[in-house]
């Protein structure tokens, strides 16, 4: 569009992308490329032999508690405070590829981006840590595929999710000392009391936690999301500690290490790589 | 229902309708075609109903007005817009609505010379709705959306004027599919630009009200629509005092 000074700017809308008109006139080659791309972007779950066996012929995993950590701080919190005790088995991972995935140099990075753990002495408690980026069209798919494997009856879902305080809207400006803090959102079927304040309007959550919440709402599963708003980019021990409050309710199913050693914390709260020291 | 379109005007207008008429939620559309989001009750009136989870596509009704409203809160996943259109149309058919109205908008900067003059509001109706509503539309004196030439400036006899709704999202697709499937559907759209689209939402919803008479006519004040709490802080948080 033209501005008052006569220059022509390209305009974009926050609501709609530029449409591709006449998509139906795609030729075969385009369709082939589109199909291949779709296949590459499919979310694939890889379970351990034990679990694959249990899931055979349409059976579902008996699960009473499913805890999902989305983001580095949430995932590191679970690693440091819960998974550090030797009571957990890694039982699977999900492979997810999208435009933001870095070129994988070996199996290791792919496997650690989305991992499932199960308690040895109580296999109905399942933990999942997601540290990779899930694209908008993959979030629903991931959710459907994972929940397909779990029986829904008497299932309790808890999602710990990282967020930035910059995305949190409030009328009184928050001074930095109040971050990090938790806000909760839960489904209609969740009858317990959340451990923190509910997420106030006009704030919303998006991404994988939202996809999980939508699924649970529609399927009447008790689920709660604890969104942690932090002012630090990257893994940080203070932010991780904020999630402690969320797990107090699960005391019986999850054994929380109340104060992990500094060595363990240091392992997870690495400072970011020096290549990006612009904002130190 | 709204179309997710420039300025989100349709969606804002629907928010006003649901909020003012105090409509009750009766269901949701759970689909992989919309980007996931979740939040607490955007129409909360008190603390008790504030903690109710809401999803990207929900249906509300007002029984006394025989009105159902679909609100769409998230963008459509780019590769799934055709699938979403088909989903909506099959739902509309299955529900047996006597008429469907799509509230939409289009980029103001892409108007051609004749569209620049006069009102920024336009309408479209499918043939099957025209049979029933022709008289009402004539009375209202509304302006139909013009067909524009595909290549403005070129006087090529072969290119017929066609319907073009830039920035309208799935509006054009919904309209053309409804014509093909003989569904009674109307589109009400507004030419606008991105920015503070609240006045645009009011313009569109008042325009709709002229036809459907959703509100009581006894209150003549212009601001008879109730703004929902989810419209707070549309342009960000409060300003940090330390900035000054």
Could you walk me through the main structural features you see in this protein, from its secondary elements to its overall organization?
- The complex is a heterodimer of chains A (280) and B (244).
- Chain A is α/β, with parallel strands linked by helices and 280 residues long.
- Chain A has a single domain (66-101, 110-272), classed as 3-Layer(aba) Sandwich (Rossmann fold), CATH 3.40.50.
- Helix content of chain A is 27%, strand content 20%.
- In chain A, α5 (136-148) packs across α6.
- Chain B has 244 residues and is α+β, with helices and mostly antiparallel strands.
- Chain B has a single domain (9-231), classed as PAC-like subunit (Rossmann fold), CATH 3.40.50.
- Chain B contains five helices and seven strands.
- In chain B, the strands form two sheets. Chain B has a three-stranded antiparallel β-sheet, covered by helices on one side. Chain B has a three-stranded mixed β-sheet with strand order 5-7-6, sandwiched between helices.
- In chain B, α1 crosses α5 and α2 (81-95) crosses α4.
- Chain B is globular.
- At the A-B interface, α5, β8 and α6 of A face β2 of B.
Any key phrases for this structure?
heterodimer; A: 280 residues; alpha/beta; Rossmann fold; eight-stranded mixed sheet; 9 helices; globular; B: 244 residues; alpha+beta; three-stranded antiparallel sheet; 27% helix; Proteasome_assmbl_chp_1 (chain A); Proteasome assembly chaperone 1 (chain A); chaperone (chain A); proteasome binding (chain A)
């Amino acid at each position: 569009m033209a501005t008052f000074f006569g220059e022509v700017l390209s305009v974009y809308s926050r609501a709609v992308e530029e449409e591709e008109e006449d998509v139906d006139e795609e030729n075969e080659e385009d369709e082939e490329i589109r199909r291949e791309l779709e296949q590459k972007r499919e979310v694939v779950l890889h379970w351990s032999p034990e679990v694959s066996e249990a899931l055979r012929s349409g059976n579902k995993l008996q699960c009473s508690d499913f805890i999902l950590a989305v983001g580095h701080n949430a995932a590191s919190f679970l690693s440091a405070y819960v998974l550090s005790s030797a009571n957990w088995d890694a039982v699977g991972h999900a492979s997810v590829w999208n435009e933001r995935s870095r070129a994988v140099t070996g199996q290791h990075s792919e496997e650690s981006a989305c991992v499932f753990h199960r308690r040895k002495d109580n296999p109905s408690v399942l933990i999942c840590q997601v540290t990779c980026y899930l694209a908008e069209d993959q979030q629903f798919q991931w959710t459907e595929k994972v929940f397909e494997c779990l029986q829904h009856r008497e299932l309790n879902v808890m999602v710990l999710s990282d967020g930035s305080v910059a995305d949190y809207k409030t009328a009184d400006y928050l001074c930095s000392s109040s971050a990090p803090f938790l806000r909760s959102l839960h489904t209609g079927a969740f009858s317990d009391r959340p451990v923190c304040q509910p997420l106030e309007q006009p704030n919303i959550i998006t991404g994988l936690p939202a996809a999980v919440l939508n699924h649970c709402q529609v399927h009447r599963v008790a689920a709660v999301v604890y969104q942690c708003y932090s002012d630090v980019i990257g893994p940080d021990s203070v932010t991780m500690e904020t999630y402690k409050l969320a797990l107090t309710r699960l005391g019986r199913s999850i054994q929380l290490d109340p104060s992990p050693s500094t060595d363990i914390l240091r392992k997870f709260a690495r400072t970011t790589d020096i290549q990006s020291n612009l904002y130190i | 229902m709204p179309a997710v379109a420039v300025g989100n005007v349709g969606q804002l207008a629907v928010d006003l309708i649901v909020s003012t008429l105090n409509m009750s939620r009766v269901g949701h559309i759970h689909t992989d075609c919309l980007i996931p989001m979740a939040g607490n009750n955007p129409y909360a009136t008190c603390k008790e109903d504030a903690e109710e989870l809401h999803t990207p596509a929900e249906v509300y009704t007002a029984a006394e007005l025989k009105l159902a409203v679909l609100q769409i809160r998230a963008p459509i996943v780019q590769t799934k817009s055709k699938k979403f259109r088909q989903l909506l149309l099959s739902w509309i058919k299955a529900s047996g609505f006597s008429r469907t109205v799509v509230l939409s908008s289009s980029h103001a900067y892409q108007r051609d010379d004749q569209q620049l003059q006069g009102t920024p509001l336009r309408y479209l109706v499918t043939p099957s709705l025209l049979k029933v509503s022709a008289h009402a539309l004539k009375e209202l004196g509304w302006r139909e959306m013009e067909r524009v030439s595909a290549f403005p400036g070129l006087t090529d006899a072969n290119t017929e004027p066609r319907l073009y709704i830039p920035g309208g999202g799935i509006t054009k697709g919904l309209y053309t599919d409804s014509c093909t499937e003989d569904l009674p559907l109307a589109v009400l759209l507004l030419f606008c630009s991105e920015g503070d689209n609240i006045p645009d939402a009011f313009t569109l919803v008042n325009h709709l009200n002229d036809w459907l008479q959703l509100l009581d006519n006894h209150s003549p004040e212009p601001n008879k629509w109730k703004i929902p709490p989810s419209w707070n802080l549309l342009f960000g948080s409060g300003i940090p005092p330390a900035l000054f």
